[in-house]
Amino acid sequence: MNFGFTASQQQMRDxxxxxxxxxxxxxxxxxxxxxxxxxxxxxxxxQQLMGITIPKTYGGTGRDFxxxxxxxxxxxxxxxxxxxxLSVHTSVGTTPILSFGTEAQKQAYIPKLASGEWLGAFCLTxxxxxxxxxxxxxxxxxxxxxxxxxGSKLFITNGGAANTYIVFARAEGGITAFIAQKSTPGLMxxxxxxxxxxxxxxxxxITFEDMCIPLANRIGEEGDGFKIAMANLDGGRIGIAAQAxxxxxxxxxxxxxxxxxxxxxxxxVSVEAARLLVYQAAFLRSAGQQCGxxxxxxxxxxxxxxxxxxxxxxxxxxxxxxxxxxxxxAKVTEIYEGTSEIQxxxxxxxxxxxxxx
Length: 357
What we know:
Elements: H1 7-22, H2 28-32, H3 38-46, H4 65-78, H5 80-92, H6 95-100, H7 103-115, E1 120-123, E2 139-143, E3 146-157, E4 164-171, E5 174-181, E6 187-192, E7 203-214, E8 218-219, H8 225-231, H9 233-258, H10 264-286, H11 292-317, H12 323-330, H13 340-352
Parallel strand pairs: 1-4
Antiparallel strand pairs: 2-3, 3-7, 4-5, 5-8, 6-7
Helix pairs in contact: 1-4, 4-5, 4-9, 5-9, 9-10, 9-11, 9-12, 10-11, 11-12, 11-13
């Protein structure tokens, strides 16, 4: 593994760091008041951040996965909410279409998502199925050249603000993936959850009531949905690991600036270890190599480091300034994109298969 960034990756880091510190930071009061930062998303689009890994043929910048992780890391050092908006849009809101969609679907949706004209969301979690995604109850009944969807999803990041939704439902042939647009009749956006952290990021309940989806909007074949969902989880987990790394990094730097002491040594070690795990996983995915174990290791450790760093930051400094926000934002990184318990299960399965350290 090469521990250094290429010139292009260094350029990305410097550009996103400057943008985060000088533009994203100015939106934090608005976001902390609970307002979704639509204007910030437009500015992120102007910086070509909404299609970092999308090929240029579909309107993206064609950069590698490491560059995308650099962007999430740097954004999350300033605003974890901005980091997750981009992460969900890219990793699970756009990539399923790019990886499994037809050429017609790619031409219809990817350019708008890559340019930031449209925002993407991912609808998998339900009131009765979170970690056990295979038990989802939303149904998709075939009706000629269409499907009729009924059911509900919850904790949908970007919901309400997003223009497109990757929806998973149970059809006759098994769990199946669909592309739904916000304007589709029968798609109803519910309440925006009141959260401890990630203020400004929308997390909503969505109901499908006889929502009619054309056959042309099915991704892959009937029964491919679970495979499609799982295929994108590695990238999503590395993205959230990068978000957690950003929070841990920011908490450490804030504590170091305001109250330097010997106890920060442990925090520094954890942040650096998280950095290595996150970028190792990103390196493997960027190289097209298997990274399921490494993605889960990065997610497990970086989220734990974020919670520990933010907790220690508050313990030493109090609720002053950004310390409380780091504390409130950190906890969810141990929960979404697979809980820490799920990451341990994934890692254990890899080890049992002889793919150990």
